[in-house]
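Request: Mind sharing a record?
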Amino acid sequence: MADDALTGAVCGFLPIVAIVGFFLVIAGIRIIYQYERGIVFTLGKYAGTRGPGLNIVIPVFQTMQKVDTRIKTIDIPKQEVMTKDNVPVMVNAVVYFKVDKPEAAVLEIEDYTYAVAQYAQTALRDVVGNSGLDFVLTEREKVADSIQTIVDKETESWGVDITAIKIQDIELPADMKRAMARQAEAEREKRGMIIMSEGELAASANLAEAAKKLSQTAGALHLRTLQTITDVSADEGNTVVFVTPIELLRAIEGLGKNKGKDI
């Protein structure tokens, strides 16, 4: 009788155990996506990192914290920074980063996203503050690379990899913009004067060479004068001024001298 009662109790208890076990297994199922990693803690201690797929943890005794390993973006709001040559500028940037070591990102720092944003903001101020205005405006890539090097070196121990930092915008004071516009205008005028003077120099050399050749050929200057008059007379509204060649004047002068001798 006692054995039958014990057997009946066990048989009645087994379904309860099976049901409880089933619910415990269901409660312990964790699905990790391809872009995630699972950090498992057993009684509060780090017990390993789980990969994507179906994973089982022991309820109550084990917990899992998921970490997204995709590239994330942080916008650094505009910062007013004084450059090395004492010019205030407003600079903002974008930080691209991803978690390279999930266990370090969970164990070494409380909120790695906030920490990266704050450290990148500080590095931006340091790099721009130690650079001149012209360097900041013309060498954005170098400024961004310097910020990335500083931030990446610090966040390496956090398990975070800084993939890129880009300078979005650099805003100058209105007075500085006007001064730079005047400087650019003066520079363009300078280039225009230089080009014009070089053109006049080349033209004068060509004119000198042409005059030399005309003087060496008899009647060439007279033909050139006639050609010029022909070009001018094409427009009926112009007044034509006939220029007497010097050869003709000398011939008339020679005739006058001969007549004087005859007299």
User: Anything to note?
Assistant: The chain has a mean pLDDT of 80. The radius of gyration is 45 Å. Residues 174-216 form the longest helix (43 residues).
